Amino acid sequence: MSALTDDNIRQFNHEGYLVFEGLLDDRRNERIKRDVDRLMEDRKVPNKPAIPMRYPELGLLTSEPAIVDRVASLMGGDRFVHHHIHAVCHMPGEPGVAWHHDYEQLPQTNRSHLMVHVFMYHSGLNGEIGDLLVLPGSHKKTMSRDAFQQFGTADLPGSRTIDNLSPASVVIVHSALQHARRAKPADPGSKRYFVDTSYCQFGIIWPTIRQFQHYNDMALELGWDRNGKYAFLYEEGHFFFKEDQEGAFESRNRGSVAMQL
Ligand SMILES: [Fe+2]
Questions:
Q1: What is the C-alpha separation between 179 and 19, in angstroms, rounded?
Q2: Is residue 194 within 8 Å of residue 119, measured between CB atoms?
């Protein structure tokens, strides 16, 4: 049975994102926040590797059924690979992030396969520290990641501000959707927990960095595949490593790519 309705899928295809408020249960959500707190503390320790995939609640988040099954509905089945997990706790004064998208492609030429990012707001959003801005429909246009960067975090025609979400809310975005984080004032002591994971549809070789493949190998070693049910998420063979290709790409990227195929 699909984890999403046909209306959900139509809305995602049209607007490029779906919001699920309070998707994770409270106790689980609190455990995830504690893992993020530990991660933030570990990051302050020199030479201590602080890798989200190593923390049990964060590692398991990469194969969280409530999320992965929804992603499967968007992908048309369980044929997609986990790209990365990032985790952070933003404090008052955290700077914003200008308009951009995160669809991995070198160069940006088409949207033949689906990549999604899953934005998780474990303490919700309340208009403090940082709002999420999205530009619905922008995922349908092929453009460079920084195409709208000059607009900073200003409202754009048709853009939406998401600043009111309950704890444990999840926003699944098409990775090519233009989005931004607008810095907002906040009371001292406010926190904005933010985890994001990302998934790429099977069928093409996606850009990544070598480190992310290591983290997927780690996920299998640590059992985050939930007894094999979600082993497909960490399968090898779906990535190339940007660090190996960028030099050659820069020298060969001349004129129309079509003439080099
Ligand atoms: Fe982003």
A1: 14
A2: yes
In whole angstroms, how far apart are CA 232 and each of 21, 25, 49, 69, 154? 27, 25, 26, 13, 39
Both structure tokens of 130:
């940082």
The string of pLDDT tens digits covering residues 218-252 is: 999 999 999 999 999 999 999 999 999 888 888 88
Angle between helices 65-75 and 6-15 (to 10 degrees): 70
Ligand 1: distance of its center to the CA of 176 in Å? 9
Do the domain assignments include residue 237? Answer: yes
Is the pTM higher than 0.90? yes
Distance 101 CA to ligand 1 centre (A): 6
In a domain, 85, yes or no: yes
In a domain, 1, yes or no: no
The set of residues, in sequence order, having a beta carbon less than 8 Å from that of 244 and lying 6+ positions away, is none
- Report the separation in Å between the CA atom of 108 and the middle of ligand 1, taken as the mean of its atom positions: 16
Rg of the chain, C-alpha, whole Å: 18
